Amino acid sequence: MRIPANVVTMKPGNGKTGVRRASGTTEGDQKVKRRALSSTVLAGLATAVLCSAFVGAGADTAQAQGFFERLFNPKYHRMQELKAREELLREKARTVRVSAPKFYTYKPDVWKRVSFAALAEVKTAAVTAKEDQAGEGEGVAADAAPAVLTEFDKARPALKGLDFEMLPEVADALKAFYREHPDFLWIEDGNVNSRALSAKMALADADKEGLNPEDYKVDLPTFEKAGTEMASADDDAAKLEREKALMSFELTFSSAVLTYVLDAERGRVDPDRISGYHDLPRHEVDLVAVLEEIKSKDDLEAYLVSRNPQNAQYAALKKELARLRAQDEEEGQIVIAPGTFLKAGGSSPEMKHIVAAINKNGSDALKEKHADTLAAYAGEEAYTPELVALVKDFQKENKLSADGIVGKNTIKAMVGETNAAKIAKVKLAMERRRWLPVDLGARRVFVNQPAFTATYYEPGKEPYSMRVIVGKKSNQTSFFYDKIELVEYNPYWGVPYSIIVNEMLPKLAQDPSYLDRAGYEVTTVSGHQVSSSSVDWYAVATKQQSINVRQYPGASNALGQVKILFPNSHDIYMHDTPTKSLFNKDVRAFSHGCIRLQDPKGMAAAVLGKSKDYVTGRINQGQNAQEDVTGNIPVYISYFTAWPNDEGTISYFDDIYDRDMYLLKALDITEQTREDARV
Fold it and tell me: Does 124 lie in the same domain as 58?
């Protein structure tokens, strides 16, 4: 191929580049042209080579030219780069996950060593007046009345050599109280008074309230044990020891009493330190006001017991705790072999234990209905039709699927739990009850997750209860309470960020237009609707971009026809669901955390104070609409593995989220901290 004459050439000899300029051009122009010509030459050479290759292979020149354009065309390369970038972003999006709330290593309330030396100085009114007179340069009259010192004032100097382990809020309350009331609460005429003995009885019986008496145990002062010798001693050392004993008992006992009050009213554990699934503000207790009340009361035992929750649920739990402790734990314990699985027509050596368990734990009505079957049974292993009918009725009575199959859940209902296991659950329930308001409200909705039930309460009406579906173990429903505000008909489903990232992004990585086709609306923060295929989902996943996704109302909408809102930071509410069959399951933990209601129209009608027909009519209008809920209706999304029914009978439930285990750990850590503080 011939090189054009105006192309740059190299001169031999001195190594410098020689330039032959075309007429009328500058040297800069020549350089540009030379670069362009060089590219042209290379392109021409490449075209010639490619054309030769294609022609030799039987392809035509147009094919070669097309391949060449793809190879050297900048737009083609840019398009390929964009495709590669999109694939990279999709790959990155697959790796992003929104983590669920976690369980924490529990950090208990910290006990601190506290000095009360600031209270050691006597500050009676008379002494202060004398000091003021002296400060003004006036002499104190010889016949001025001497300052009257209380027993507390006389013992104050001993505070300089004492310090105590206690909760910081208890220490603050004691300092504030004794600064304003410099007198003994628990000592009178140099001895422990009747008020202290009365309070001590309540502290010693703390186990009746599900608390630990060791946390409030205070030994009597040493001078009390030593008789009158120390009390009548005149030497200064003996007086100082006596005053130390007085002050040590006074402040230690006051600390124990206030700690009991805190534990009784707010619980020993701060639930929000257990996990991110707990959202329960800790009750505030005015401890100075408690000491003010104690000062004016004589029956301290009754007063302290009254600081525990005063409501029907707590009373039923306390009664059950006493009953279980009084019952002989080994008496009549029936064991059905683990792994037993029995269907109608089968046989098992465990049949006699099954019948015995029903005889022991079945209701009187059940046993009366099947009296002939029970009387005729003589220990046979065959699972006869009569025994199947007995088991089915037992299952119905215990709200199990009445299929006659004796499996894990039925066996658990038959043999129940050991007293020790029940006692543990009752004590945990008493602790959890302290986390909620004492008065739950006359009108309220109470959801108990382990029971898979929601109940509406209203004065003058029977409680309205229904089955619910709660969150999966990987998407647990939180434990909190709020206020019901709205009912929404034909609702949109605003997809939570966690579901967008964890569940939708993998689908969008395979099909960017998935949301458009599946009945979802995608909008920017300004409300502008966009195609799901136009969104940088990796930027959404990493919170570099905000996108709203919601599902249109309709038959396939995840929320069904109605939802009940109590706006909260957990995006949890109660709602309908298209998957009605799941309500037939005994264990109903299937949601992403929200509460699916078996009868959402009935619950909506209840909280609105309307009829069910009214709610149905609003839904049938086919429009998305909201209606305010009037009045104060709190909703409790709770977690109790032991809980009383409305007659006060305690039912026991599985710990579906292992929260009993974590609460037990928190209590163990709390007890260890307190034990260390007592040493």
Answer: no
For 271-403, list the strands marked E by DSSP.
278-279
The β-bridge relationship of strands 634-638 and 625-628 is unpaired
405 and 295 both lie in a single domain: no
Which domain-ending residue is among 302, 322, 342?
322
Residue 637 CA to residue 566 CA, distance in Å, equals: 11
526 and 460 belong to one structural domain = yes
Q: How far apart are CA 30 and CA 28, in angstroms?
A: 5
What is the Cα–Cα distance from 1 to 579, expressed in whole angstroms?
A: 77
Q: What is the pTM of this model?
A: 0.75
User: Which CA distances in Å does 624 have to 461, 555, 604?
Assistant: 31, 13, 15
Domain total in the chain = 4
pLDDT tens digit string along 475-503? 999 999 999 999 999 999 999 989 998 89
In sequence order, the 6+-apart residues with CB closer than 8 A to the CB of 566 are 482, 483, 484, 485, 573, 635
Question: What does the alpha-carbon distance between residue 194 and residue 298 come to, in Å, rounded to a whole number?
Answer: 8
CA 577 to chain CA centroid, Å, is 24
Could you report the per-residue pLDDT of 351-375, keeping only the tens digit for each? 999 999 999 889 999 999 999 999 9
Same domain, 504 and 568: yes
Query: Where in the sequence is the domain holding 27, given as residue range(s)?
Result: 9-95
Q: How many CA atoms lie within 13 A of 317 on its CB side?
A: 27
364 and 466 fall within a common domain: no
> Per the domain annotation, does 100 fall within a domain?
no
| Residue at 567 is within a domain | yes
Contacts of 57 by beta carbon, 8 Å cutoff, 6+ apart: none
